[in-house]
Specification:
The complex is a heterodimer. Chain A is an alpha/beta fold. Chain A contains 10 helices and 7 strands. In chain A, α6 links the parallel β2 and β3. In chain B, the strands form 3 sheets. Chain B has a 7-stranded mixed β-sheet, with helices on both faces. A 5-stranded mixed β-sheet of chain B has the order 9-11-10-13-14, with helices on both faces. In chain B, strands 1-8 form a two-stranded antiparallel ribbon. By secondary structure, chain B is an alpha/beta fold. Chain B has 2 domains: 165 residues, Rossmann fold (3-Layer(aba) Sandwich); 124 residues, Rossmann fold (3-Layer(aba) Sandwich), CATH 3.40.50.920. The chains are: A alpha/beta, B alpha/beta. Chains A and B meet through α5 and α6 of A and α5 and α7 of B.
Chain lengths: 283, 332
């Protein structure tokens, strides 16, 4: 796809097409790796694609370009998602995704910034990304740099106390160049989030912490775009999108299956999944 | 006159006393020197920012905060968030100094330091105060005795424990220029000046006061002063005892350590920290693989601290000059 320093994709159908390709690449690399996190990678695809391709300024040829918008994948186990997005964006050749989780590959099981240019910060230990995103946003603001910072968290992840420390910080310092997302797919490793450790009412919690909250269907590309638009108009406080999503989205036999949190597809499942994604006319 | 001569003359002019001289001055806490140096650096370097977790009056970052309110971030009582935010600021091109007490800095936020600072190799400076038992009356919950071990185990991390206020000032300036994660461990109590006036801290370089034939004390932090006192007593009794200030605990000055090990019959390490995993541990690890010699470790022996005056606590945990003297004599 190449340089995205100018001209962002606003056509919904084009974004949907990218999302399909990203889903297929996620499943492809997971199948070849034989392990990894399927469900939570698929649930955040539409949001991540919308952020990268309809919003962000970046330049794969110069990953540390100062004017770039920043993206933090706080839910680091969705590494296949960010790799598929980066391949689509032109950070590396698509066939590099075959090295996922292989010894010495820059495509580590969880994102490593030191090994893969374009990854802003290493993640994988949950709850840390929002703090780092805040720091970036504060640094950009100090320099008068208009770049924005995006951060995707999981819903199980917000059980981490640090998330709420960071939530306070963003509101206290009136960080309005940040847009966070909770990928609210409702499932975590041990079961339904509300059964393991309830986080609702999520909307009220973030609002009480001083955030501008948008509660949307995280698979409806138009709603995502509208929320990202809205976030850019909010001044004096941080914005968060609660994206109501489906774990394993796009593949019927992975959807809402807690057992596919940390399990890769088999070859046979992969073939069936690709067929489903390509046949799907609705998403 | 050649350029070289001129330069030497300049250096001599700049130093009023002979090399090695220590101008007598009133004792000063290393944290005070940090506060002053950070403020000075802040004036020269707009990229320097500071963070604190509600202890800026004690860590002395408050001076920087008053002068540069836009570049200071009080994170409240939230160490994990402080470290993550510092990493983010570093990624935006700033040089963040993040401070709180050593216990909280290293213990409360260890995983954040591991992932967002060391693994991500972000340019974050962790400057912690209130290390060791000389925290005193606040007791064990506030006395970091494991912080050096915790920080030393992390790849990419440099660990520095300055001996006095002047070395602290010099080290903080060096740290600001160094690219990469650094942990600097400072103290609460006032400590005497021990480093020569013409000394300048260099990362990874130990300062040799003297290498003793009979024994050499490898010390860090406040224990350098105590080691010097012990060496004086021992040398007065005909036991040739040296002192090395190993202020950079990681990376260790291996060259100097080898030199000491080849010369001294005995090595004693002295640190205001657990004997597990700190300076004593580092020295033993290196020497046992490279030049095995007898090493005795002075430090807190696998226990927590307690409330008391700093002097009482140093006695209680066997960390006085007298304890070092006894250790050397009993090892002969």
């Amino acid at each position: 796809m190449g340089v995205m320093t100018e001209g962002k994709i606003t056509d919904i159908n084009e974004l949907k097409k990218i999302a399909k390709n990203v889903r297929i690449n996620i499943l492809h690399m997971l199948t070849l790796a034989g392990s990894g996190h399927t469900g939570g990678s698929l649930s955040a695809v539409d949001v991540a694609v919308a952020i990268y391709f309809s919003r962000m300024k970046f330049n794969p040829a110069d990953p540390s370009w100062e004017e770039r918008d920043r993206f933090v994948l706080s839910k680091g186990h969705a590494a296949p998602l960010i790799y598929a997005v980066m391949a689509e964006a032109g950070y590396f050749r698509e066939d590099a995704i075959k090295t996922l989780r292989k010894t010495g590959s820059p495509l580590q099981g969880h994102p490593c910034s030191a090994m893969l240019p374009g990854i802003e910060i290493s993640t994988g230990s949950l709850g840390q990304g929002l703090s780092v995103a805040n720091g970036m946003a504060l640094g950009l603001r100090l320099d008068g740099n208009p770049a924005r910072v995006y951060c995707i968290m999981g819903d199980g992840e917000v059980q981490e106390g640090q998330v709420w420390e960071a939530a306070m910080t963003a509101a206290h310092y009136k960080i309005d160049n940040i847009c966070a997302v909770v990928d609210n797919n409702g499932l975590q490793i041990d079961g339904p989030v509300e059964k393991v450790m309830g986080i609702e009412p999520l909307r009220d919690k973030w609002a009480a912490f001083g955030w501008h909250v948008m509660d949307i269907d995280g698979h409806n590309m138009q709603e995502i775009i509208d929320a990202l638009d809205e976030a850019e108009t909010v001044k004096g406080r941080p914005s968060i999108i609660i994206a109501r999503t489906t774990k394993g989205k796009g593949v019927s036999f992975f959807e809402n299956k807690v057992e596919y949190h940390g399990v890769a597809p088999t070859r046979e499942e992969f073939d069936r999944a690709v067929k489903e994604i390509l046949d799907d006319r609705t998403s | 006159m050649t350029e070289l001569h001129k330069t030497r003359q300049d250096v001599q002019d700049a130093v009023p006393h002979h090399p090695g001289h220590v101008t007598p001055r009133k004792p000063k806490a290393t944290r005070d020197a940090y506060g002053e140096t950070l403020l000075e650096l802040g004036k020269r370097r707009p990229d320097i920012v500071a963070l604190d977790a509600d202890l800026s009056g004690s860590t002395k970052t408050a001076r920087f905060a008053r002068e540069f309110p836009d570049r200071f971030f009080n994170m409240g009582v939230a160490e994990q968030d402080m470290i993550g935010t510092a990493a983010g600021l570093a990624l935006a091109g700033k040089v963040p100094f993040a401070s709180t007490f050593a216990v909280f800095e290293t213990g409360r936020a260890w995983d954040q330091i591991r992932l967002a600072v060391c693994y991500s190799n972000t340019n974050v400076k962790l400057v912690a105060t209130h290390g060791g038992v000389t925290v005193g009356e606040d007791g064990a919950s506030h006395q970091a005795l494991e912080d050096i071990a915790l920080m030393r185990a992390l790849p990419n991390m440099m660990v520095i424990v300055p001996a006095d206020a002047s070395e602290t000032a010099s080290a903080i300036s060096a740290v600001a220029d160094h690219k990469g994660p650094v942990y600097v461990r400072l103290g609460r109590a006032k400590v005497p000046y021990v480093m020569p006036d013409d000394y300048r801290f260099t990362p990874g370089k130990a300062f040799v006061f003297h290498i003793g034939k009979d024994a050499t004390i490898i010390a860090a932090g406040i224990m350098v002063d105590i080691a010097k006192k012990a060496a004086e007593i021992l040398s007065g009794e005909g036991i040739d005892t040296g002192v090395v200030n190993m202020s950079t605990i990681k990376p260790l000055d291996e060259e100097t350590l080898l030199r000491v090990a080849r010369t001294s019959a005995l090595i004693v390490t002295a640190e205001e920290h657990s004997v597990i995993g700190g300076l004593g541990g580092s020295v033993c690890e290196f020497l046992s693989e490279n030049h095995p010699v007898t090493v005795r470790r002075i430090g807190v022996r696998d226990t927590f601290g307690c409330s008391g005056t700093p002097d009482d606590l140093l006695k209680r945990y066997g960390m006085t000059a007298g304890d070092i003297v006894e250790t050397v004599k009993n090892s002969g």
